[in-house]
């Protein structure tokens, strides 16, 4: 059973294993609030998950340790279990969805685990892990729905109160709910007036819908760049703790997540994966209520983003932030037109980074063409100014 004493025990066990990650100020993320980041993306294995998995494995009997452990994960729990098992001399098998980022799969292997890739998403990997557990007698290390795992994650709550004693609001990602259950439980025991808000991806809102419907629901599918929180069914233990200790749950879109990742990279020099960036996305987009003038802690849960995904996320984030734009102009197909467009864009302080010319559209006059230019800009107001300058010069800008 989860108790505050259990969370403190977890902290003692983890002292020699994990980092007490930094709490850093991030004043630009929401100027009206005092925003801080709890940087679990800089944790051992690059995620908070090692806390819960290590504490759980440390509490196993010698008989259970001898049989080995099995787990399922979108990636971060896998690495935590693999590290914990290897350090304790225990065999580990990890079932991962076959769509898990390659970097997470390879990292899991490097920590000493045997990897079993399963077609589908987290829930499919879970079913396979249970099959293997029952067939071979392994101990299953659940990624979120386990009291010891939740207690391990709750140690973050203790650290937040140590590092920011006057915290007013804590914003936490939610997938299956283990992280927010542990953090909310620990903080509410010690500082009940502190508000705890959860954030889910709009494409995977299983806990949010479960709380609204007042029963655990299973989504037919999930679709989000935040693979670490792409969970179709929350846990029963975590659901009850969230109901009791969490003050609200909001959702953010993939575009909002992409912009948050880019903002962390540019402003804070931090790399966050999609799941780790959802609290920042919620704060930046005004989705957390009543935070003006408050001390707000955003829990950046992990930084294990695949570099191929990161490049696409950056491109998406640039568009979401008005930092890049595509402008289409209808032109007469004659010499000097491109030079005129380029000069106007340059005079407005923007930069042309791509040019595409199309004279084949059947709806155009045979002597006309479409010119599509990609431009680097400062913000959305800058895009409007560039388009206005082109229009004022007699060019036809197509919205």
Distance between the termini: 59 Å
Largest sheet: 6 strands, mixed
- Written as H for each helix and E for each strand, in order along the chain, the element string is HEEHHEHEHEHEHEHEHHEHHEHEHEEHE
Q: What are the segments in which pLDDT stays under 50 over at least 5 consecutive residues?
A: none
Strand order of the largest sheet: 1-2-10-7-8-9
Helix-and-strand structural type? alpha/beta
> What would you call the shape?
elongated
Number of helices: 15
Rounded mean pLDDT score: 93
Proportion of beta-strand residues: 15-25%
Helix content: 40-55%
Number of strand segments:
14
Q: From the alpha-carbon coordinates, what is the Rg to the nearest angstrom? A: 24 Å
What does this structure look like?
The protein has 399 residues and is α/β, with parallel strands linked by helices. The protein has helices at 4-14, 49-58, 62-67, 76-87, 102-110, 122-136, 147-163, 178-190, 206-213, 236-245, 254-268, 274-284, 307-320, 337-347, 380-392; strands at residues 23-25, 34-39, 69-72, 92-97, 114-118, 139-140, 169-173, 195-201, 248-252, 295-300, 324-332, 351-358, 368-376, 396-398. 44% of the residues lie in helices and 20% in strands. The termini are far apart. The model has no long low-confidence stretch (mean pLDDT 93).
């Amino acid at each position: 059973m989860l108790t505050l004493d259990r969370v403190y025990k977890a902290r003692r066990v983890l002292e020699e294993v994990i980092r007490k990650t930094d709490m850093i100020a991030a004043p630009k993320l929401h100027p009206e609030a005092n925003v801080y980041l709890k940087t679990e993306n800089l944790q051992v294995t690059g995620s908070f998950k090692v806390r819960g998995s290590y504490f759980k494995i440390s509490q196993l009997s010698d008989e259970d340790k001898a049989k080995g452990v099995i787990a399922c994960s979108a990636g971060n729990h896998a690495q935590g279990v693999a590290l914990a098992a290897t350090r304790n001399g225990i065999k580990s098998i990890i079932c991962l969805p076959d769509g898990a980022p390659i970097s997470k799969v390879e990292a899991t292997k490097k920590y000493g685990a045997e990897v079993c890739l399963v077609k589908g998403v987290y829930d499919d990997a879970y079913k396979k892990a249970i099959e293997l557990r029952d067939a071979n007698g392994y101990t299953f290390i659940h990624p979120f729905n386990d009291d010891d795992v939740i207690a391990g994650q709750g140690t973050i709550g203790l650290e937040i109160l140590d590092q920011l004693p006057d915290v007013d609001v804590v914003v936490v990602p939610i997938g299956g709910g283990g992280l927010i259950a542990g953090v909310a439980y620990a903080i509410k025991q010690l500082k009940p007036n502190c508000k705890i808000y959860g954030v889910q991806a709009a494409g995977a809102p299983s806990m949010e819908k479960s709380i609204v419907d007042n029963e655990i629901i299973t989504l037919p599918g999930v679709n989000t760049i935040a693979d670490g929180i792409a969970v179709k069914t929350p846990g029963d233990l975590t659901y009850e703790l969230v109901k009791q200790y969490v003050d609200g749950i909001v959702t953010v879109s993939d575009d909002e997540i992409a912009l948050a990742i880019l903002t962390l990279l540019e402003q804070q020099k931090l790399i966050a994966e999609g799941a780790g960036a959802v609290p920042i996305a919620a704060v930046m987009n005004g989705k957390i209520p009543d935070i003006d003038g408050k001390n707000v802690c955003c829990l950046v849960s992990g930084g294990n983003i695949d570099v191929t995904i990161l490049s696409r996320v950056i491109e998406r984030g640039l568009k979401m932030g008005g930092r890049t734009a595509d402008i289409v102009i209808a032109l007469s197909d004659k010499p000097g037109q491109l030079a005129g467009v380029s000069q106007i864009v340059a005079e407005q302080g923007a930069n042309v980074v791509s040019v595409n010319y199309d004279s084949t559209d059947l709806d155009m006059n045979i002597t006309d063409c479409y010119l599509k230019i990609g431009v680097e800009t400062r913000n959305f107001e800058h895009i409007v100014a560039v388009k206005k300058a082109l229009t004022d010069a007699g060019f036809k800008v197509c919205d």
